[in-house]
Amino acid sequence: MENLADNLARIRARIAQAAERAGRDPSGVTLIAVTKGVDAATVEAALRLGITDIGENRVQEARTKFPALPAGVRRHMIGHLQTNKVRACLDLFDVVHSLDRFTLAEVISRRAQALGREVPVLVQVNVAGEDTKHGLAPDQVVPFVKAVAELPGLQVRGLMTLAPLVEDPETVRPVFRTLRRLAEAVADAGIRGVSMEWLSMGMSNDFEVAVEEGSTMVRIGTALFGRRSA
Q1: Which of 1, 80, 116, 160 is the most buried (most CB within 10 A)?
Q2: pLDDT at residue 1 in the model
Q3: CA 125 – CA 162 distance, rounded (Å)
Q4: Please, what is the average pLDDT of the chain?
Q5: How far apart, in whole angstroms, are the C-alpha atoms of residue 188 and residue 133?
Q6: DSSP alpha helices (H): ranges in the chain?
Q7: Got the DSSP string for 144-164?
Q8: What's the predicted TM-score (pTM) here?
Q9: CATH classification of 2-223 is 3.20.20.370, yes or no?
């Protein structure tokens, strides 16, 4: 618990410093605690320390943890989402960060309508063009958002990306800058019902650069909880 508190204090200080370097208000950056491989007791400890947003990569793992979460905790699906997991996903999660194909958008739309919900989603972009990562190519983003905006039950609220894992975070600054500019292009397109208020970018190894480039949501696991086997 003591290490967790220290880690969280350090992360918050680093976010604040990065935001201040960019002339931003640190309160505009949400820390999403990524709880993949983290036991329920540690998750509870993080919540007691003031964490308000939890991220999970897998629906299966969320099933074991999320029912015990208190009201008011925002639950983020940050991993690749299969269409056959959409029903369970929308029962468990508040926000989907990984919308990366139109067939998935259609399934989310149908399920959202059945639930009488408007589901906030972020469009995942493979800015670096890595074969191992999901997401749209940058030049597909604006037409994709225009198409998705026609579907009921979805609220496109921003973009998400996973930067390559590198030793020097400065190496991936152009990835984050590109995502910010893509969000600006989507906003400039004036697509009805679409907002670009959220930029989900930056993880344990590169979140400070991401914040300097405009991230509003950083997804932190290892720097907060330490290395996990899962």
Answers
A1: 160
A2: 57
A3: 8
A4: 96
A5: 27
A6: 2-21, 40-48, 59-65, 86-92, 102-115, 141-148, 173-188, 207-212, 222-225
A7: HHHHHTTSTTEEEEEEE----
A8: 0.96
A9: no
CB atoms within 10 A of CB 122: 27
Average pLDDT over residues 142-160: 98
Return the pLDDT at 155: 97
The first and second tokens of residue 17, run together, are 């410093």
Tell me how far apart the alpha carbons of residues 28 and 211 are, in angstroms, rounded to a whole number.
10
Which residues lie below 8 Å from residue 73, measured CB to CB, with a gap of 6+?
47, 51, 52, 53, 54
Residue type, 32: I
Token output for 35? 């709880």
110 Cβ contact list (under 8 Å, min separation 6): 153
Residue 84 burial (CB count, 10 A): 9
DSSP letter, residue 227? -
Query: CA dist 118 to 40, 46, 111, Å?
Result: 29, 28, 10
